[in-house]
Amino acid sequence: MRSRGREMTLSFPPFTRAVIWLLGINTAVFLGLSAFGSRAVIQWVYANLGLVPSEVVFHFAIWQIVTYSFIHVGFWHWFGNMLGIWMFGSTFESSWNTRRFLELFFTGVVGAALTTIILSFAHILSTPGTVTVGASGGVFAILMAFGLVFGENEIMMIPFPFLIKAKYFVLILIVVTVAFAISGGGSTAYLAHLGGLLFGYLYVKFAPVRGVSGKFSISEWYYGLNNSYYRWKRRRAAKKFEVYMQKHDRKVEFDEHGNYIPPDDGPRKGNGGGKSGWVN
Question: 155 in helix, strand or coil?
C-alpha cells in the first residue's frame, strides 16, 4: 500500500539472540506461575522475587532490583512487555551488539527499581511495602533510547494505519505516562515507567560508545594498569640513569614519559641544517 506518494511496507524485526533469551525466560516464568503456581507459591514469588522497597532497604534483598523484571501479572502485562522487547530491542541488538543492548535493558530495569524505591519512601505514588513486578522499566528504557537514536525512523501505531516518527511516539509516551502517574494510574507501576525512561535517556547520553562493560571491563582495566606500571618503571629507570650520568659528568635528558631526548648537536652537513633522525 502507498501513503502520500511513499511506499509503505510491513516488515517484522528479527529474533536476535538476547531478545530470544529475554522472551524465553520471561515466558517460562509467566507460564510456570500460570500453570503450576498455587496461591501460596505466587505469594512467595511476589514477596521474595518481586521488588519490595522495604525488603531491599531493610533486609538487603538486593537481587529484587533485577528479579522483579521477570515476573508478570496477567496475559496483557506479559504480552505488552514482550512485544516491546522484540519490536524495539531487536533493532538495538542488530545495530549495536548483544552486550550493549543488554546493558541498556538492565540499566532501565535497575534504574526503574531505584526510582521506585526512592519515591516509595517519600510516599510519592507508592509505599515501601508495595510490590512491583514486570519488565516495563527495561522496555521503557529501550523506547526512550529508540526515540533518541532512531528518532527519524517511522513506525506504525498498530492498530491505527498511519506512520509516526519514533521521536514523536516517545514524546507521546512520556506525556501519557506522566499523566497516568499523576492521576494514580490504578495498579500500574508508572514510577517504574518513568524511571526506565530517565535511565534510558542517561544511558544513551552518557554511556561510552563501546558500552559500560566495554569501557570498564576487567581486561581493559588490567591492560591499562599494566601499561601504567611499565610507564612508571621506565620513568624511574630514566631518573636513576640521569643521576648516574651526572656522577660521571655527563648530562642526559628524558621527557615526562621516560623517553630519551637526544642532545642538539647543531647543524649538520648534508641534511639541510636540520637534526638527524626520521621524519614522519
Answer: strand
Helix and strand numbers, DSSP H then E, in the chain? 12, 6
d(CA 57, CA 51): 11
The amino acid sitting at 187 is S
- Domain spans, the chain: 2-216, 219-261
DSSP string, 175-196: HHHHHHHHH--TT--HHHHHHH
Residue ranges of the chain with per-residue pLDDT less than 50? 1-9, 265-280
- Dump pLDDT digits (tens) for 96-140: 999 999 999 999 999 999 999 999 998 887 889 999 999 999 999
DSSP 271: T
The gap between the terminal CA atoms of the chain, to the nearest Å, is 59
Query: What architecture is domain 2-216?
Result: Up-down Bundle (1.20)
